[in-house]
Structures are given as structure tokens and as C-alpha cells.
Design brief:
This protein has 286 residues and is an alpha/beta fold. The protein is built from eight helices and 15 strands. It has three domains: 5-89 and 182-211, Periplasmic binding protein-like II (D-Maltodextrin-Binding Protein, domain 2, 3-Layer(aba) Sandwich); 93-180, 3-Layer(aba) Sandwich (D-Maltodextrin-Binding Protein, domain 2); 214-280, Alpha-Beta Plaits, CATH 3.30.70. It is flat, with a radius of gyration of 24 Å. The protein starts with a strand and ends in a 6-residue tail after the last strand. The strands form three sheets. The chain has a six-stranded mixed β-sheet. The protein has a five-stranded mixed β-sheet with strand order 8-7-9-6-10. A four-stranded antiparallel β-sheet has the order 13-14-12-15, with helices on one face. It binds adenosine-5'-triphosphate and magnesium ion (MG). Adenosine-5'-triphosphate is lined by residues 10, 13-15, 52-54, 71, 73-74, 91, 93, 159, 161, 180.
Length: 286
């Protein structure tokens, strides 16, 4: 095989844009016009193979691609022998059991003797066996959610994200079996040279993954409030404090998680912080 790192990503679908954006954020330039099948990166020893998501775990397992980005749900269902290298923080969803909303759910034993429609028969079989449940699996490849209303099955086992599709089909989610998101997978038998290339790519990828959900924050604050402010804003090591020309004032810089950020800003304002700026974080190299 060539010494290009070949990455398989979804050609068209829910993960395509985020996967390409991720490569771009990692500083890897790909000509999007050539999105047909195989495209070489302009500035990195990498080529992109665009596939149906179902095919990605298999081609990575057999070495036709070195790495891939695909939903964990697909990796589990394919039972492909690949290494899950990173969680990507996009494509969040879960594979759950759902039943008609008017029925009472009594726990996993509810499914004994029931017929369950799904596109994930292997994941479901494993869960049924682990819980010692005797149910029939009905494989349906599309529109699984209409199965109960159509009399095809009693329940479904399907991908859920917001839950809106279930509600509009008169179903309720009763048990989550798998929490999924997009993952970076790798072939287990990569050559040492490829491994090395992967390590250098992971360095870039981690900088992008670690910057997700974080912001750079800076503000002016009275010097005598700095120690209290630092308690509100723990940074990677410790916040940066610089004196301002105006006596008794400092500039305080830190990195914050976006979740909970507004609470912290209110507390900082109450301490007397002024001129608070929140900036986009491009990369974080810990
Ligand atoms: P392909 O044509 O590549 O086979 P697909 O139709 O099987 O595409 P998509 O609907 O594009 O797949 O979904 C790709 C992945 O996105 C899913 O496998 C799952 O990991 C993730 N995902 C996130 N949210 C959802 C959702 N609400 N419904 C379905 N998949 C979701
Ligand atoms: Mg698919």
C-alpha cells in the first residue's frame, strides 16, 4: 500500500459535513469538488475515500482504508475488528427500544414474546441474550418507526436523537441500549510507518477535539478581586493575570467550557469585572 494515510468518511449523509469540517479544522485541505470517490489532500499525506457509512467499518477492518470516521452504532452492528481511537463529539444519537405510547413498560421482561423491528439485529441480539429475553427480531432496513402502527412488529429498536420521530409515530422510548457518536476508527494491523503518521495526525485532531465547546475569555477586574475571580475560572494551568495601566485594575485571561459559561460571567460581573470578551478557540494543545 502507498504511504498515504487513507481515511474513509461518509459520502453523503448526517456525518459528511462534520467529518469534512473536522479535517479542515485540523488543517488538512481537501478539494471538495472531487467528492466523487477518492480525493488526495493538498498539504498532507492523506487521501479521502467517500463511502456509504455501512461500508466504513469493513474497509477499515480489512485495510482498504487505514482509518475512518463513522457512527459507533455502525461499528458495533458491523462487528468489524477495528480499533476505536477517538470520540469525535458530533453525530450524537442513541439506539433505543421504543414501544407504542399507550402501553405500560414493565422493564426489559416486557419484550419477552414480542416482535421487535430494527436495522441493528446484531446489537439487539446481544442485548436480548445478555438480559435473557426471548423476543423475535424482524430486520427492517428503512422506516423502522412505522412498524408497530403497520402491524409489522410490537416494538422497535432504532436510532433516536431528539425523539421527535418516535413521538410523531405514537411511540415512546423505554430503554437506551447504546449511546453513540461519531468515532475515529483505525485498522489494527497498520505498518509502523503508518502508525507514526497516525500519531502525528492525532496530535492535530486532539487539538481540534479539545477546543470543542471551549471559549477564550478575558476581562478587566479590580486587582483585589483577582483571587476570587480565579476560583470561578480555573484555566488549563492557571489563568493569566496582567496589570493594567490604570492603578488597581488587572486583565484576566482564561479558557472556559461553554456549558455553564453564562453563570460564571454573571458571577464575575458581580465581582466587578468589566469589558468581558469571549473569543473563539481554534486549537488547544494541552
Ligand atoms: P448512508 O447513505 O451513508 O448509508 P445512512 O442513511 O445510513 O447513510 P445517516 O442517516 O446519514 O445514515 O446517518 C449517519 C449516522 O449519523 C448514523 O449512523 C448515526 O451514527 C448518526 N446519527 C446522528 N443522529 C441521527 C439521527 N437522528 N438519525 C439517524 N442517524 C443519526
Ligand atoms: Mg447507512
Amino acid at each position: 500500500m502507498s504511504n498515504l494515510m487513507r481515511i474513509a468518511i461518509q459520502a453523503k449523509g448526517r456525518l459528511s459535513e462534520d467529518s469534512l469540517a473536522f479535517l479542515k479544522d485540523s488543517g488538512i485541505r481537501i478539494d471538495e469538488l472531487k467528492r466523487k470517490f477518492l480525493a488526495k489532500a493538498a498539504n498532507f499525506p492523506m487521501e479521502v475515500l467517500y463511502l456509504r457509512d455501512d461500508d466504513i467499518p469493513g474497509v477499515v477492518a480489512d485495510g482498504s482504508a487505514d482509518i475512518g470516521i463513522v457512527g459507533l452504532n455502525e461499528v458495533l452492528e458491523s462487528e468489524a475488528d477495528v480499533e476505536v481511537v477517538r470520540k469525535m463529539d458530533f453525530g450524537d444519537c442513541r439506539i433505543s427500544l421504543a414501544i407504542p405510547k399507550e402501553q405500560e413498560y414493565t422493564g426489559p421482561a416486557f419484550f419477552n414474546g414480542k416482535k421487535i423491528a430494527t436495522s441493528y439485529p446484531k446489537v439487539l441480539r446481544k442485548w436480548l441474550d445478555e438480559n435473557d429475553i426471548d423476543a423475535e427480531i424482524r430486520v427492517i432496513l428503512g422506516s423502522v418507526e412505522i412498524s408497530p402502527a403497520a402491524g409489522i412488529a410490537d416494538a422497535i429498536f432504532d436510532i433516536v436523537s431528539s425523539g421527535g420521530t418516535l413521538i410523531s409515530n405514537g411511540l415512546k422510548e423505554v430503554h437506551t441500549v447504546v449511546d453513540s457518536q461519531a468515532v475515529l476508527i483505525a485498522n489494527k494491523k497498520m505498518s509502523p510507518a503508518k502508525r507514526k503518521l497516525l500519531e502525528s495526525m492525532l496530535f492535530r485532531f486532539d487539538a481540534v477535539i479539545d477546543s470543542r465547546g471551549k471559549k477564550y475569555i478575558l476581562m478587566n477586574i479590580p486587582t483585589d478581586k483577582v483571587s476570587e475571580a480565579v476560583k470561578i475560572l480555573p484555566a488549563m494551568r492557571s489563568p493569566t493575570v496582567m496589570p493594567l495601566a490604570a492603578e488597581g485594575w488587572c486583565s484576566l485571561h482564561s479558557v472556559v467550557e461553554e456549558v455553564g459559561m453564562w453563570d460564571k460571567i454573571e458571577k464575575l460581573k458581580a465581582l466587578g469585572a468589566e469589558g468581558i470578551l469571549v473569543l473563539h478557540l481554534d486549537k488547544v494543545i494541552a
